[in-house]
Inverse folding.
């Protein structure tokens, strides 16, 4: 199955007509089967695409234009409603195909559990990878209410896959006591509350390494992104998140894939959440794809 036959949906602004001529495959993972508070992130990918229509194609931050990046938006995956295990399997198989064709995977969520199968597929090709996690929540639980497949567990699973010493979390301001204790004792890196300044300190240590990056939109304060399933007061601004994306773009890390998750548009009639998310995606395309 070809990428451009696989799924249906709207496309991000200036998407190329075919996957074959593109360096990046953008894809939606419309899954919110395991959320612990408010559902609705399955509608996030298409609303991010809709918001992209209002973007300028040129980034004054990076002095680049979207015409300089070849990317194909494959639309949303057709995931089986309510079946987390099967959905994870499908996402992993799809991203494995992207990696086999040496293309950059750029995912739109969906709840944060979708990052877990993506990292599994990316790790098959890049065993030495590091993982940057930007989020309000630690996501280090082993289970939630007895369920191991939860949007509260992906970073713990990734620690167990690639080693906690290769996991770097930023902006964390919510979680169980045990999650923070695990972060402290396991050897992973966790920056609480802030993103940009600790990121500046960490990036030189990751120079030359292959890095996968996940961004949960709830790292933003609800004033900037109310449209998310588990909003958490005390977050960063959209300006700081963009600056953090640019810091990574101008660093010596090799970003090998990325995703942006947890946009739940029903809770934001102003659309500021998906507007912020779509601008972040533009900057990721222009800054991280080498």
């Amino acid at each position: 199955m070809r990428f451009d036959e696989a799924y249906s949906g709207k496309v991000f602004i200036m998407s190329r007509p075919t996957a074959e001529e593109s360096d990046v495959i953008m894809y939606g993972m419309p899954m919110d089967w395991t959320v612990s508070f408010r559902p609705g992130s399955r509608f996030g990918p298409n609303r991010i695409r809709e918001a992209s229509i209002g973007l300028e194609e040129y980034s004054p931050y990076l002095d680049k234009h979207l015409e300089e990046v070849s990317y194909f938006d494959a639309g949303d995956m057709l995931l089986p409603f309510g079946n987390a295990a099967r959905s994870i399997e499908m996402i992993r198989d799809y991203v494995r195909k992207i990696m086999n064709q040496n293309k950059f995977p750029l995912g739109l969520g969906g709840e944060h559990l979708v990052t877990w199968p993506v990292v599994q597929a990316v790790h098959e090709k890049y065993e030495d990878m590091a993982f940057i996690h930007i989020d309000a929540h630690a996501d280090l639980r082993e289970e939630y209410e007895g369920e191991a497949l939860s949007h509260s567990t992906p970073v713990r699973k990734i620690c167990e896959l690639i080693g906690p010493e290769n996991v770097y979390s930023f902006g964390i301001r919510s979680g169980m006591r045990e999650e923070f204790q695990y972060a402290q004792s396991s050897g992973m890196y966790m920056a609480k509350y802030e993103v940009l300044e600790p990121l500046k300190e960490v990036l030189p240590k990751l120079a030359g390494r292959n890095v996968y990056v996940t961004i949960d939109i709830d790292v933003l304060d609800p004033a900037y992104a109310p449209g998310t399933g588990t909003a958490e007061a005390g977050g960063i601004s959209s300006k700081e998140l963009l600056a953090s994306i640019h810091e990574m773009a101008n660093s010596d890390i090799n970003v090998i894939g990325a995703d942006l998750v947890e946009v739940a548009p029903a809770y934001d009639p102003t659309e500021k959440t998906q507007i912020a998310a779509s601008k972040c995606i533009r900057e990721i395309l222009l800054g991280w794809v080498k």
Notes: DSSP finds nine helices and ten strands in the chain.
